[in-house]
Design goal:
Blueprint lengths: L22 H12 L7 H8 L4 H8 L4
């Protein structure tokens, strides 16, 4: 019936949807630190996070919300 569909839903009224601009980078740094990634630069942090198992990231990110 459907091909190549991305199903999405949600609300803009969730506290996480209206977070301050810098909240995302703070959460990214917390996540990176929790999996022993260097947060000295965004480039290093992203490079390290890309190597982390997705299930580990999924487990750790719940503590930020």
């Amino acid at each position: 019936l459907f091909k190549r569909v991305i199903s999405q839903s949600g609300t803009s009224l969730g506290y996480w949807a209206v977070a301050p601009k810098d909240q995302g980078i703070r959460n990214a740094r917390k996540l990176a630190s929790s999996v022993n990634c260097n947060t000295a630069s965004n480039e290093q942090m992203v490079k390290c996070l890309k190597k982390v198992n997705a299930s580990t990231i999924a487990e750790r990110q719940h503590s930020f919300y």
